[in-house]
Amino acid sequence: MAKSKSGKSASPESVYRITELVGTSPVSWEDAVKSAVATASASLRDLRIADIVKLDVKIDGGKVVAYRARVALSFKYEA
User: Fold this and answer.
1) Are the beta carbons of 17 and 74 closer than 8 angstroms?
2) Consecutive H or E run containing 30
3) Taking 60 as the threshold, does the pLDDT of residue 1 lie above it?
4) Does residue 24 contact residue 34 with C-beta atoms inside 8 Å?
5) CB within 8 Å of 38: residues ≥ 6 apart
6) How far apart are CA 35 and CA 73, in angstroms?
7) Which has the higher per-residue pLDDT, 28 or 1?
8) Element (H, E) at 6
9) For 61, left (φ over 0), alpha (ψ -120 to 50), or beta?
10) How crowded is residue 23: how many other Cβ atoms within 10 Å of its Cβ?
11) Which sign, positive or negative, has the C-alpha torsion 36, 42, 43, 48?
12) Please, are residues 71 and 33 in contact by the beta-carbon 8 Å criterion?
């Protein structure tokens, strides 16, 4: 293991994958993000960061009917 300038052992380098998901909610963008993260966490382990890429709404009959959040999620590859 490599040593840092302080002489302590440095942690090994990590590799992360970033994947984009779109969460939806009839209530709010916050709920849309939570939906995307909850769905991803059911099949992906070690989620690290969720970056909100884009927010938009679905409109029907002149009214907002759904909030959508495009989320870039990163998770760590296991060595």
Assistant:
1) yes
2) helix 29-41
3) no
4) no
5) none
6) 12
7) 28
8) none
9) left
10) 23
11) positive
12) yes
Residue 72, beta-bridge partner list: 20, 51
Mean pLDDT for the chain overall: 88
DSSP E strands, the chain: 16-25, 47-60, 63-76
- Backbone φ and ψ of 46, nearest 5°: 60, 45
What domains, with CATH codes, occur in the chain? 16-76 (3.30.1660.10)
Both tokens of 8, joined, read 């302590």
pTM: 0.75
Share of the chain above pLDDT 90, in %: 63
Rounded Cα distance, 36 and 55, in Å:
13
The answer to whether residue 4 scores a pLDDT higher than 70 is no
- The type of residue at 46 is D
